[in-house]
Amino acid sequence: MSTAALRPAVPLLVLIIAGCIIAAIGNGVRTSFGLFTLPMTSDLGLTRESWGMAMAIQNLAWGIAQPFAGAFADRVGTGRTVAVGALIYALGVLGMAFSPSAGLLTITAGIVTGVGIAICSFSVVMAAFGRSVPMEKRSLIFGVATAASSFGQFAFAPISQGFINAFGWQSALVYLTMALLLIIPLSYALRGRTETPAGHADLPFMEALAKAWGHGSYKLLVIGFFVCGFHLAFINVHMPAYLVQCGLSPEVGSWTIAVIGLFNIAGSLLAGYLGGKLPKQLMLATIYFSRAVAIGLFMLFPVSEWTAYAFAAAMGLLWLSTVPLTAGLVSLFFGARYMGMLYGVAFFSHQLGSFMGVWLGGFVYDMTGAYDLVWYLGVVLGLASAALHIPINERSVPNFSLKPA
């Protein structure tokens, strides 16, 4: 299968910069939602489980929509896909600001926002990078895009907390809506679609998925990605409230999320760079094992401001460093033509994990008054995912979409 990249509609540097800004805004807004846990549940009289359910539905809707968003972008173009997604995302966040009940919040913050995130997510952006960047440089550029999304997390966490403190949570959500609308003009730089290489069939969605799922290494990759979503969503949504429960201030919670984003810039860039030089599957196994160790150590020591920041720094290095490696393996297995769709399927597994992490966190807290059981489960799942990645075979799938002779 050819590794040549297609010429983008705009200069490659412009495409990369625009895509990185889109990733930063989209991820920055999403990762700030955990800061709204305490003010919204308090003002609206919601239980922690009902809030967690809305966030869990958001992650599930994101995961369900992601393969279709990727397939749509593969076929009709990335730019218009991202623009539509940004509009839906903005409408969801704006609706979230005016949702007085758990049921309405599940629709706005959950379903609408989740679908919007999927359609303009950095998964779709990376599909545009995948068709424009040579194979040997894709892992690095995927790392750059992931680092940009992490910078958004670093920037938006203190900004969102500042908005909440100064204007209240409702106005803060309106301001985040305005930030999302900036994605629409930026999406113009991502226009274009991935063409089917000469001699290859344009496989329908289900046929491509069935052929891919028959590849054992892809199956292990998809299953293991579930754990990444579990870790990220639980920590992102429940960590600020957990730290307040441990006697720390809400500002420490916001800066903890920011520190994760800051250190993940380095982690994502390093993973993207090393992904072109070392076996990606072994790097993924190391990342999941290291997460299990970091969570275990965090639970062993008394929680303080400094242990929170140390844990955030360690998790930040491991946070989204899985993404360029996972995306790089999908691209290597099946080529750029089906990357949006088949990475989207892997991401659906990630979002199933996110759903479980967010919902289970709220459920366990309401049942026990603590999050400890979910933290310990995170350790076990990290070890299991590390074991799943070791047997993955890092090589392309021969003749994946070749037309019959």
From TrEMBL:
* Name the record gives this protein: MFS transporter
> Which species is listed as the source?
Devosia rhizoryzae
Q: Which UniProt keywords apply?
A: Membrane, Transmembrane, Transmembrane helix
Q: What is the lineage of its organism?
A: Bacteria, Pseudomonadati, Pseudomonadota, Alphaproteobacteria, Hyphomicrobiales
User: What residues form the membrane-spanning segments?
Assistant: 12-30, 50-69, 81-98, 104-128, 140-160, 172-190, 220-243, 255-275, 282-303, 309-334, 341-361, 373-392
> Does the record bear Transmembrane in its keywords?
yes
Matching InterPro entries:
MFS, MFS_dom, MFS_trans_sf, Proton-linked_MCT
Tell me which residues make up the Major facilitator superfamily (MFS) profile domain. 12-396
Q: Which Pfam families match?
A: MFS_1 (PF07690)
